[in-house]
Structure prediction request, 252 residues.
Amino acid sequence: MDVAGVGDRAVRVIMATTMAAPTRLQRCLVWPAGRHSASLIFLHGSGDSGQGLRSWIKQVLNQDLAFQHIKIIYPTAPPRPYTPMKGGISNVWFDRFKITNDCPEHLESIDAMCQVLTNLIEDEVKSGIMKNRILIGGFSMGGCMAMHLAYRNHQDVAGVFALSSFLNKSSAVYQDLQKNASVLPELFQCHGTADELVLHAWGEETNTMLQSLGVRTKFYSLPGVYHELSKAELEKLKAWILTKLPGETAGQ
Prediction:
């Protein structure tokens, strides 16, 4: 698409739509088999969708990620211009100047999406789910978004998970946590050692920084795994989810 003309007008229309009043995100839901007593918000990577992430997980596990008591919400990021795609339109949670850990964050778009996702959290609270019964996490960009959302805005959630994700070296998350005095939700991280898009070292550095700022973490390196979901990590994630959101019989 040409930068000028129709393409340019289309970008302006989408930007105006994205920045207009509170967005209600499209959501793909997996309902619990039993009584709903906890919720999990799972954010997709750049260019994907909630339905796409659910389908990918189902393909890897040969079944849905599902629980007896936990509702899973897979929201879809609204389309917006994305700088790493030369301004092309994509379903991304926020913009990046480039995909690296040593450049500034695009904080304006991150903060705007934190507010949109806060509305989603508040919907769960209004439905009767306590904040400490909500988990937030995601894959790649979704994991980064989850860390911003939880550690800067919702430190009373049950936990955070980030798969193949990282924070920039000068992240606002680090800056906010330096001023923090409250107990923070635990972070679960997995990262493939063969990841060429989001380097394993970036994930490790993120984990080390958050640990130094008072976050309890679990970090699993996945030998030979690229920028992808693996069955081993999803099984580890499922077990961790149940430690953070146990069912009623497990001492809720």
Q: What stands out?
A: The chain has seven helices and nine strands.
